[in-house]
Amino acid sequence: MAEVHLARVDEVERVGALVRWLDDLVRVPGTRFGIGLDAILGALIPGLGDAVTGLVALGVLTAAVRRGVPRIVLARMFVNIAVDTVGGLVPVVGDVFDLFWRSNTKNLALLERHQHELEPKARRGDYAIVAAAGALVVTGVAAPIALVAWLVSLLA
């Protein structure tokens, strides 16, 4: 049992190192602010850089799955990655967005929150964030459809 726990702690430490590369690779002198590969690659290789770092960020999610993190927390982590990846795709604004959103750091905090729990439990905030993201997606799909229907009704 002790070996399994140590392996889990070791895995979270490896994930932490990955997160530092993605979100805090280079520190801005005199501050606690860092710039990672997520922002750097997104700026240097628009689109492709964001897609690559989004795929790498799935490593944090994979570790959370192996650790038995509750499904709703996994959904929250996926929302963080999706917001970071889609937000980073917007030219110029997305590069600035990458500097501040830091989905990997958020996901590492969620993973560490459940690191020592024998039976990880979700919190109300996890449900609220996933529900809000779902509502935004539904609205984002329904609004254009409603707009097109309204325009068609005006033309008819």
Describe the overall structure.
This protein has 156 residues and is an all-alpha fold. It folds into 2 domains: 2-120, no CATH class; 123-156. The chain contains 7 helices and 2 strands. It has helices at residues 2-23, 37-44, 48-67, 71-88, 93-101, 103-113, 124-155, and strands at 26-27, 34-35. It has a two-stranded antiparallel sheet. A hairpin with a 6-residue loop joins strand 1 and strand 2. Helix 1 packs antiparallel against helix 3. The longest helix is centred in the last third of the chain and has 32 residues, at 124-155. The protein is flat. The termini are far apart. The model has no long low-confidence stretch (mean pLDDT 83).
In short:
The chain has a two-stranded antiparallel sheet.
What is the rounded Rg? 19 Å
Q: CA-to-CA gap between the ends?
A: 70 Å
Q: Segments where pLDDT lies below 50 for 5+ residues?
A: none
| Shape by Cα distribution | flat
Question: How are the SSEs ordered, and which strands pair?
Answer:
Blueprint: H1 2-23, E1 26-27, E2 34-35, H2 37-44, H3 48-67, H4 71-88, H5 93-101, H6 103-113, H7 124-155
Antiparallel strand pairs: 1-2
Question: Which tags fit this structure?
Answer:
3% strand; single chain; 7 helices; flat; 2 domains; 77% helix; 156 residues; mainly alpha
